[in-house]
Here is the input.
Amino acid sequence: MYLALLVIFLQCSELYAQGKVFTFNKVEIKVQPSVEVKNGAPMSIICHADISKNTDFRLKHNFTIFKDGKLVFSTVSDKEDARYEIPVARASHTGDYECTVKADGKFGFSNSVYVWVVGMTNPILTADKKEALEGEVVKLRCELPEEVPPLEFVFRKIKTNSAAKVKRVPERTQNFSEVEFYVEEGDNILQFDCFGKRQVRSGWENSQHSNRTLVTVKEPFIKPTLVTKPSNNVTEGDQIEFECSTVVAQIRNIEIIFQKNKTILNSVRDKKFLNYSTVATQEDSGEYLCKVEQGAVSKTTKLNVFVSELFPKPILSASMTNLDESKSLILSCSTKGFRGANFSIVRKSSSGDILLEKSRVFEMKVNVNDTGSYTCKAEVKRIVKESKPVRINVYAPVSKPTLSVVSGSPEVVLGKPLQLICHSMMGTPPITFTFYKGDEMKKIVTNDTYATFLDEDIGLNDNGGYKCDARNNHSSGLKTSNILNVTVIVPIRDASLGSIPYGEVEVGSDTAFLCSVKEGSWPIDFKFFKKTDHEVLLHEVREYSDRTIWHKKTMKRKDTGTYYCMASNRASVDVRSRPITISVILAAWQKGVIAAFVLTAMAGAGAVALWWFLRKKKKAKGSSMEMSGEKLPRQPSDGNFYSGSGYIEDNENHMKSTDESKGPDLESAEVDYTEVEVSTLDPHRAPGQKGTETVYSEIRKTNNDSMENRHSIIYGHPDAT
Here is the structure.
């Protein structure tokens, strides 16, 4: 019975579980009262789950609300709504909200809703003092309570009848900021305020301005007073006095400075006044400034002074400003419209003025050392005025210039620049130098004692004609140098090498090597080399020609190899020829001697072989006769032996067949031997005369001809025809 009840209960439970079916239709998020909420007002974020069920059963929902991706609220409820209550909305609550609902392993997600809390809390401004002296600093603090960074604070310093000074301070980690404002000269009553800013989706949002904070400014000292005695309009020679004073609350660290045109004339410290006096000159006219400083505070007063002219500046005149040495110079000094001044004429010098004469007029005979600047001075009532300087130039005549090549040697390589220098040992600068190439003027240079000229257009025919002129302001005129002839060096071009004979040379004979160039100035240095593991110099010679011949005597087998030549001249450029190859071979008579020696040896060897063969044959015949004598009776003495004649006949046939089997080889060997026999040397004649005398004569004749016309038979040479 109990078992039946248990089965029925389990089946009912299974049927009940199978009957709990639900699905999320929609999950949405709502904001009350709206998505724009005024700062400080209450706000509710509602997450609603729209769920369909197959039956009416209770379902637990897990609600989670996020702001800008961060969890801000969560709850579990069997209701389909969850509320996130914010009693006081602040700017920090602005952002994107979304919610998630989880029920029995299923999830539902809402869309995102942007909530904007409009407005910010009112900022609070405080100052560290209510009164300040000029030059001091006022420290301000602005705070936005309950706001969350990042924020930006804007501070303002407000003055009457003046534009406000603004300072902006961004704050990323705190909701307050502090700044300092400098209290300047002229500040009286200052007002300060601030406001905050934060960045929202639509841009920047500003808070209300804070309360205004009032700061009263006090002066540490008053603006200075500047006066002149007897007045600010005086005449040259009058005594003028300046007095600068101020009223100061604290005398310590006070400084008074008196200046004109940025030049400090006098100064005092820890005093309330300053005095300055001088004899007035016309240069004293202008603006004067009295400045009082204490710490960072500075106040100034300006005053213009006008000084009337007592007499004009003197004028110095000279009879001549450019003159030859030993000429007479007259200097005179005068003042326009005024008489009674005391005059003096001086010469200016780096070590000080040199007094020449206390007079209006001064005359002297000049030399070169008198070149310089001269002035005159006029004095009235202790007022001294000086004229403008007059430059006097005394000239010595130039000497005859010398023209030379800067490198020293009067020659130049074709295509290279030529630099000339024209120098005059004597003469007062500046000196004007003129360069000529032939009759054509090339350059004019003004310098002290020398000038240079660079000729970059050197041609093959430019072998001379350079000269230069020198002149200065002396009346003697110009001087001309001697004509400079310059040699143009043509560089070496296209060296070539040939030989007689060409290619193969017999041992013991002579070889002539010809090295030539297509172009190049004489003399030319020729060098002959043989290529080995390293370059070997064989011969060198200097020629006043475009070619040279080197005779190498008695060539040997070790002289076989590659040869080349190199040519150079004063252009300092080595030009190398193409290499040629020389093979040293045996002479014809040497070949004959070797052939005769070989054939003689072969003939001797053949004779020895024949002797050995005949001797062996003879022994074989004697042995055969002895054997036949034992078996047969002795025949009559007439000499007819049957067996003997048969043996000889067989032996002859055997030799004949052997010779025939050799065939052509033996015949050719006999032919070679016959030819050698025909050309066998006569032991009574000199080696190499038979059969080679005509060839030797022809070579010798060719060599003799080559000395007369080396262009016609130099084998291997580019000039060969």
About this structure: The two ends are 143 Å apart (CA to CA). The first strand starts at residue 22 and ends at 32.
